[in-house]
Design brief:
Elements (H helix, E strand, L loop, with lengths): L11 H11 L3 H25 L3 H16 L3 H20 L7 H21 L8 H4 L20
Length: about 150
C-alpha cells in the first residue's frame, strides 16, 4: 500500500480557511479546479502514454498548486511527485515510466477529492466526478481569476 493513502484527502482546517476567504466565490473557484484538474490529468496520462516527461511538468505543477489551495494534500503530493520526477527525467533525458504508479493513483484521488470538496460547497457548479473524467473538458475562454485571492 502506498504511503499516499496515509495522507488525508482534504485538510478540513485549510478548506475552512479557503471557504472563509473565498466566501460566495468558493463554488465558482471549485468549478475552475474541477475543469483544470480534469484537463491536467488527461494531459499527464497522455504524456505518460507518449513517454514525454516534459509534457507532464506544467499540468502536474498546476494540479499541485490548485489542490493545495483547498487543502487537498494527497492529490497535491501525488502531483508534486509526478512533477519532480518528470523534471528529473527531462534533465536526464529519460522516459517517465517510473512515475506510472503515481499517475495510476491520480485519477481516483482527484475523483475522491472532488466528492469531498463538492460536499463542502453544495451549490458548486462542479460536474459529477465520473463524468468529468470520461471525456476531454470543454475549453475555457476569457480571463479567469483562479488562484487570485482578491476582495470583492
Amino acid at each position: 500500500m502506498s504511503y499516499y493513502y496515509s495522507i488525508p484527502l482534504v485538510s478540513e482546517p485549510e478548506l475552512a480557511q479557503t471557504r472563509a476567504i473565498l466566501g460566495s466565490e468558493l463554488a465558482r473557484v471549485m468549478g475552475y479546479f474541477s475543469e483544470d484538474g480534469t484537463r491536467a490529468i488527461i494531459q499527464i496520462e497522455e504524456a505518460l502514454a507518449d513517454g514525454s516527461a516534459a509534457a507532464m511538468v506544467i499540468p502536474a505543477h498546476t494540479l499541485k498548486g490548485e489542490s493545495r489551495q483547498f487543502g487537498a494534500h494527497r492529490l497535491g503530493d501525488i502531483a508534486e511527485s509526478i512533477e519532480n520526477t518528470a523534471r528529473r527525467c527531462v534533465e536526464l533525458q529519460s522516459e517517465p515510466g517510473e512515475v506510472a504508479a503515481e499517475i495510476a493513483m491520480l485519477r481516483a484521488c482527484f475523483v475522491d477529492t472532488l466528492a469531498i470538496l463538492g460536499d463542502s460547497a453544495p451549490h458548486a457548479a462542479m460536474p459529477a466526478p465520473d463524468a468529468s473524467l470520461s471525456h476531454a473538458p470543454t475549453p475555457i475562454t476569457g480571463p479567469r481569476p483562479f488562484g487570485r485571492r482578491t476582495a470583492h
